[in-house]
Recover the amino acids of this structure.
């Protein structure tokens, strides 16, 4: 009996560890099933039926592997089929590469390019559309020159369309002559595509940097699209303002030669700006509000990036640009109109 008890105890421990291992492996198989089905749905060729068939085959392989895992004996054929399928799926995923050669939506049809000579920056393909509705517009792409010695302000624009936690982040640079140019990190949609947060995890969109007049990019959101747009003046040293401007230009130029995929978490309108600013002003703490970009005003207020001499609620009320009527041809007039 004295010998049997340790043996039985060791047997129970072994069976317990095997059970825990099977649970963990089952969870991993389930996670790979979910990831694989979504990856195939968003990226597999063959239209809806082809995507559905590929996802169904992968789900069947994962289910077979999970069932085989809990049967007595080894994994047998189902387990090996799953492992081979996983290797093939991962290999196929690595072949998916971003491209600048697609049929793009009109508002991201051209890529921003910038050249720097001394303090003068020349931007090609600055967007200056006349928007009548979200689908009715006159497209204009223009070349602009900006003197960084005349750069005097940076404003953060937040455009809310899906509740208080989610907003699109744009940055507007102001010059002493009253001109402004807005940089926006966006998905580069193909014609007919719509934004999808889930698709942004699965290489559905390329990344783009858009430079635009405020009368274009802020108006279309506050007007035709009916979004709630707020414009916050940001406290930033002159050197940091210049370097942030040039960071946008460098990022845009890099995308011309080396396209990248947009990613909902790691490469979006807010996280890229955070990386740029953190490279200029090191030490900015990571915070959940960087991902939940609707709360960026609270984050910047806590870091002293906004005017802390007045309550944040007062700043928020001042920042709202409200619903805007169609702007005229004068971009300076629109920029004055949306500021208190």
């Amino acid at each position: 009996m004295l010998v049997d008890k340790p043996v039985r105890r060791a047997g129970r421990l072994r069976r317990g560890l095997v059970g825990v291992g099977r649970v963990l492996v089952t969870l991993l198989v389930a996670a790979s099933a979910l990831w694989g089905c979504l990856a195939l749905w968003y990226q597999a060729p063959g239209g809806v039926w082809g995507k559905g068939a590929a996802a169904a085959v992968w789900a069947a392989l994962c289910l077979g592997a999970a069932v085989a895992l809990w049967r007595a004996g080894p994994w047998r054929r189902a387990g090996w089929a799953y492992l081979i399928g996983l290797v093939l799926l991962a290999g196929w995923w690595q072949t998916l590469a971003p491209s600048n050669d697609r049929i793009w939506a009109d508002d991201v049809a051209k890529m921003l390019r910038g050249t720097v000579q001394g303090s003068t920056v020349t931007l090609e393909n600055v967007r200056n559309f006349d928007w009548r509705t979200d689908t009715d517009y006159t497209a204009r792409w223009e070349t602009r020159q900006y003197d960084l010695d005349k750069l005097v302000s940076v404003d953060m624009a937040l455009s809310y369309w899906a509740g208080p936690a989610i907003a699109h982040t744009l940055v507007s640079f102001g010059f002493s002559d009253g001109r402004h140019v807005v940089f926006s990190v966006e998905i580069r949609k193909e014609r007919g595509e719509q934004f999808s947060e889930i698709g942004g995890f699965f290489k559905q969109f390329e990344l783009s940097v858009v430079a635009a007049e405020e009368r274009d990019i802020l108006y279309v959101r506050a007007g035709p699209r009916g979004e709630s747009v707020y414009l916050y003046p940001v406290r930033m040293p002159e050197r940091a303002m210049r370097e942030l401007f040039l960071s946008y230009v460098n990022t845009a130029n890099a995308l011309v030669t080396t396209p990248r995929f947009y990613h909902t978490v790691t490469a979006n309108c807010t996280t890229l700006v955070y990386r740029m600013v953190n490279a200029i002003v090191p030490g900015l703490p990571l915070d959940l509000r960087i991902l939940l970009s609707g709360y960026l005003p609270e984050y910047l207020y806590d870091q002293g990036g906004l005017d802390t001499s007045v309550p944040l609620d007062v700043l928020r009320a001042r920042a709202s640009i409200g619903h805007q009527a169609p702007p005229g041809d004068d971009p300076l007039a629109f920029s004055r109109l949306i500021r208190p």
Summary: The longest strand covers residues 151-160.
